[in-house]
Design brief:
The protein is built from five helices and eight strands. The two termini are 19 Å apart. Strands 1-2-3-4-5 form a five-stranded antiparallel β-sheet, covered by helices on one side.
């Protein structure tokens, strides 16, 4: 999997410990907690340990999305092989002030295109909660279609697929 991707406006780089302050901020936003889940990250040291775990987990890639040329941190794109899904899962999360500007679509699209065309994966999935309407709209804009509902850890998730 590529370490970096670049679009006209964005630079995506694999997560590093230098991203600790940004990840601390992102995982504590109300939308992250509501739609992705509480990670109990209360300090920068907690965030550092969380990143270390992400960096050393097989089948999991996190890219931090930055705005060019300022390199302002906007969000993350994830690509994860989850035990409960047959195919790898693409995900995204952005700071609230950068939502609705097309950044998540632009960043997700470059990763999705790479996975489908360069890595020749035929199917990629994404999961979301039913009330996460912005995520659903973005998944549909990316060309994913509703496939099924599943229950995982007492949550009903919608599964979308390429």
């Amino acid at each position: 999997m590529n370490d970096t991707f670049e679009t006209e406006r964005l630079l995506l780089s694999k997560i590093t410990l230098e991203d600790t302050p940004f990840i601390f901020e992102l995982v504590n936003t109300p939308l992250w907690i509501k739609f992705i889940g509480e990670r109990n990250i209360r300090t920068h040291d907690d965030a550092k340990k969380y990143i270390e775990k992400l960096m050393h987990t097989a089948g999991l890639t996190y890219w931090v999305v930055k705005l060019k040329p300022s390199l302002t941190d906007l969000g993350v794109i994830t690509f994860i092989k989850r035990d409960y899904l047959e195919h790898s899962d693409i995900g995204f999360a952005f700071l609230p002030q950068y939502m609705g500007k097309g950044y998540a679509f632009e960043a997700s699209k470059v990763v999705l295109n790479h996975v489908l065309k360069e890595l020749k994966m035929h199917t990629v999935v994404a999961t979301t909660l039913q009330d996460n309407t912005s995520s659903i709209r973005l998944l549909e804009k990316l060309g994913l279609h509703f496939e099924k509902r599943i229950t995982e850890e007492d949550l009903e998730l919608l599964v979308y697929s390429t």
